[in-house]
Amino acid sequence: MMSRFLKRAKKWGRGGLRLIVRILILIGRPTELVMAAIWRFFWPKKFNYKRATFYLLLSSALIFLSFVGVIFYEEILVDLPQITKIYSPPALTTRLVDSQNQLLYKFYDGENRTWIPLSKIPQSLVWATIAIEDKDFYQHPGFSPKGVLQALFYDIRTQGNDGLRGGSTITQQLVKNVFLNQEKTWKRKLKEVILAMLVEWRLDKNQILERYFNQVSYGGNTYGVQEAAWKYFGKNVWELTMAESAFLAGIPAAPSTYSPYGSNKDLVYARQRHVLDEMVNAGYITQEKANELKNVPLDLKDNVSTIRYPHFVFYVKDFLEQRFHLGPIDQLGLTVKTSINSTDQDMAQQIVTDEVSKIANLRISNGAALVVNVRNGDILSMIGSKNYYATDIDGKYNVTTAERQPGSSIKPINYLLALQKGKTLLSTVEDSPVSYPIKGQKPYVPINYNGKYMGTVTIKTALASSLNIPSVKLLAEDGVDNMGQLGVRMGITSWGDQSRWGLALALGSNEVKMVDLAQAYSLFANLGKKVEINPVDQILDYNGNVLWQKTDNGTDNFIDPRYAFLINDILSDDSARAPIFGVNSKLKINGKTVAVKTGTTNNLKDNWTIGWTPDYLVATWVGNNDGTPMSWVASGVTGASPIWNRIMTALLKDKPDTPWQEPNGIEKASVCGKEEYFVVGTEKSVVCAPMGTPTPTPGGQP
Question: I need a surface site. Which of 60, 370, 384, 673 has the fewest CB within 10 A?
Answer without folding.
Answer: 673
